[in-house]
Each structure stands twice: as structure tokens, then as C-alpha cells.
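Format notes (please read before filing issues)

Several people have asked whether sequences and C-alpha cells are stored in separate files. They are not. Every record keeps both together, in the order shown below: the sequence lines, then the C-alpha cell lines. Line labels are part of the format and must not be stripped during preprocessing.
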Amino acid sequence: MQVTETLAEGLKRELKVVIPASELASRLDTYLDDLKDKVKIKGFRPGKVPAAHLKRLYGRQATAEILNELLNETTRKAVEERNEKPALQPEIDLPDGDAEAILSGSADISFKMSYDILPEFELIDFKTVEIERPVVEISDAEIDEQIAQIADNNKPFETKDGAAEDGDRVLMSYLGKLDGTPFDGGADENGQLVLGSKQFIPGFEEQLVGLKAGDEKVIEVSFPEDYPAKHLAGKAVTFDIVVKEVQAPGEVKIDDDFAKGLGLEGLDKLKEIIRGQIESQYGAMTRQKVKRQLLDKLDEVYTFDLPERLVQSEFDGVWRQVEQDMQRSGKSFEDEETTEEEARGEYRKIAERRVRLGLVLSEVGEQNQVKVTDEEVQRALYDKVRQFPGQEKQVFDFYRSNPTALASLQAPIYEEKVVDYILELAKVTDKTVTKDELMAEDEDEG
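Then the structure lines:
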């Protein structure tokens, strides 16, 4: 094998590789010699099939397979001998005109391989990184508020005489019509709705106020412009309503008996569970803020050339998602007060940031031997499987038989473990914030 460097510009590399035709011929002879003891051909005893006959029957197919193996093998070897780390699998350019001559064994294998190498950079001392961790102190009032909400959702309703009022529950049948024709999903014989809950489309609940059991009414409403069902979005419709019963809400006493009705030992246990749920919720938001701060700081510190093809691959993935989201929402770039060119520029920056931070985190993990265990991947797989009830076996088999898909489960685990490693070294100080401040920060960050 002869390797000649034809381009070394920044992170870009191009090599010309020549493999003598004799190498392909030698491997073909070895392949056919092994094959003659395995194949059964009418008119020949096992192991006695002439090589020339085998070559006529299997030579072209075998040559193609061996050629593919040779290209992969020499590509890998060429990179290893140069002690380089390609950002992606090198691209191979084998001129179409040479293929026939190569397969016939009359020409050397000459091809071009091109790739981007990974950039080299020094890791900073992470002890110099300062992170402010927002922490929310959970008050008894917040816990009581959550319990009051649970009580409100579990309050009893009793049949009442008279007109429906805000807070009452209306049992009814309804039939939705668009231009006088019933539409899918717009009917229910046993619907129920708590007035004021805002569960139905705007304007629906308000028109039920004042109705009594046995009343019939046709109400007119319009679906929101962003309604998921495109054929109904923004459309004016009618609903034929028949009120079957009106129920008034009862009172709920929050005490041990209430908690026991939820299957718990008592009110203290309910408060303990609610506190734990709130802590988990705020903890996840705090983690998000801390990670965002860390990544922002790393993005500020590290500036190095990026492998163009890696960036382009990341951008392509981001842009596909953008186009899919816009198609689903029915919006245009003009609706977002931008242009496609401007949007591409912004998402290009996002792709570059992701690639840069991904390379930094990967280097941190590699230098410090951060590993993802089989048990961690297994837990992630089971979590994914549980998201598809009834299809557990198909999902499990898909990931088990697809290394790329399984790697997609491993990647976020690895990233979180590397982030944890850095945060253990960084100077992290707690800052007490309110719930609203934590939520506001989340909205500001998008």
C-alpha cells in the first residue's frame, strides 16, 4: 500500500492510496482455495473443482467483497499510521471508470480518501470554574397549596336542582358540527365538565352556565388557530348540548382520613410525599440551570477550529427538526419574524456550539476514564421500553439489534457523568431563589 498526502489544510486531510493489483489477486486466490473445499458443484468431487472454474463462477462476486474489505482495512490502517483521529468515517472516492479494470484484476486499486481530524486543545483547570446553583426553599405553605389542589381534584359532587354555576359539574351529551356536519372526535354521550376548569375550548364552558338538567342548547365556538387538528384549527363550529345532570361540589376536610382515602397512613405521610415531589421537580430545574451555566462557561473558554463535516452533520440534524416543527405548526419564517437565511445562520451557530462542547466533554471523559456501565445502559433501555406499552418486545429487540440506537441511549448518560465530574471539581455556591425566579430563568433561557 502506498499513501500520499494530497491535502493538509487546517483540519482537512486528503490522501491518495494505491493498492497493487497483486494484493487483490493474492487475496482472491486464498478465498477461492478456501472455497473449493466448501462448495458442491455437479460433476466435481469435493475439493477437486479447478481454480479457473471457481473463478468463472464466483470470481467477480468474491472480488467485489474482497475489494470492499481492502478499502475499509487500508483506510483504517492509513489513518492509524499517521496517528490521526478522524472526526467521522473517512469518505472514499474510487473513480467509476477504474472499477471494471480493478474487478478484472488488470489495474491497481487507486482511490482518494478525505476526512477531518479532531482538533487538539488543552483542558482548563476546572477548579477555576465558578457556578452559582439556584436553590428553592420549600415552605409549608407550598406543600399545603399542593395538598389543597389534590383535595380540590378529589372533591365529591352531589346532584343539585337549579341552574349550573361556576364550579359545578355538568353531565351531558354533545355533538360537534362543522358547517352542519358532525366531525370526528366531537361527540360524547357521557361527557362531564367542571365549569371554570378551562378543559374545553374557549367559550364552551361559559355557555353552559345557567342550564339545568333536561335543557338542550346549541352553542357556537371557534377552535384556536393553533389547534392540533388542522381541519378544525381556527374554524367556527356548533355543539348540540343535552344536559343530563348538574352536580354541586362538596367540601373536603384535609385530615388523616383524607390521606387514608388516598391509600396513605395519614396526613403527615402525604405531606412527606408532596415535599419529595416538589424537591424532585425543583432539583431537576436546578440541575438544568447549573448545567446550562457550566456549558456556557465552557463555550466561552474554548475556541478552536471545528471539523467542517461534523458541524455540517450536526446542522443537518438540527435543520431537519426545525423544518418538521414548522411543518407541524403550519408556520413560516415570516411568522417568526425572520428569514430562512437568518434562521440558518442562527442554527449553524447552535450546531457549532454543540460540536465544540461535545468535543470538550468527550475529551474530559476520555482523559479521566469516565465510563458508562452496562447496568446504566440497561436501565435507560428499560425506561425507553416503558414509554411504548404494548410494544415492549419490538422496542427492546430494535435497540438490542441496532448498535447505533443503543449508542443513542448511552450518549446522554455519558454526558451527564462528565458534567458531574466537572462539577465535583468546580466551585459551586448555592443561591436561594424563589419558585417564580427559578421559573422565570427557565423561560428566559428558552
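For reference, the curators noted about this record: DSSP finds twelve helices and eleven strands in the chain. Confidence is low (pLDDT under 50) at residues 442-446.
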